Amino acid sequence: MGRRLGWSWFDAGDRSKTTTTNFKAQCQACHVPARASDWVYVDGYPPLKQ
After folding, report:
1. Residue 2: CB partners within 8 Å, gap ≥ 6?
2. Tens-digit pLDDT profile for residues 1-50
3. Do residues 2 and 35 lie in contact, with contact meaning Cβ atoms separated by under 8 Å?
């Protein structure tokens, strides 16, 4: 990964702290389809496409 994005997951019940402890184990696999766009699903967030 190029830029080292901040990976995190926040539970709906407590959004004050992340519950993610290891992005490779808990986050990265779901973002493989978005690899070409720096691992971010930009299609759902038009401002990120700029």
Report:
1. 38
2. 445 556 678 888 888 888 888 888 888 888 899 888 888 888 877 787 76
3. no
Asked whether 25 and 13 are in contact (CB, 8 A), the reply is no
Q: What is the CB neighbour count within 10 angstroms for residue 39?
A: 19
Helix (H) or strand (E) holding 25: helix 23-26
CB 9 within 8 A of CB 20: yes
Which residue, 13, 9, 32, is CA-closest to 22? 9
Longest CA–CA separation in the chain, Å:
32
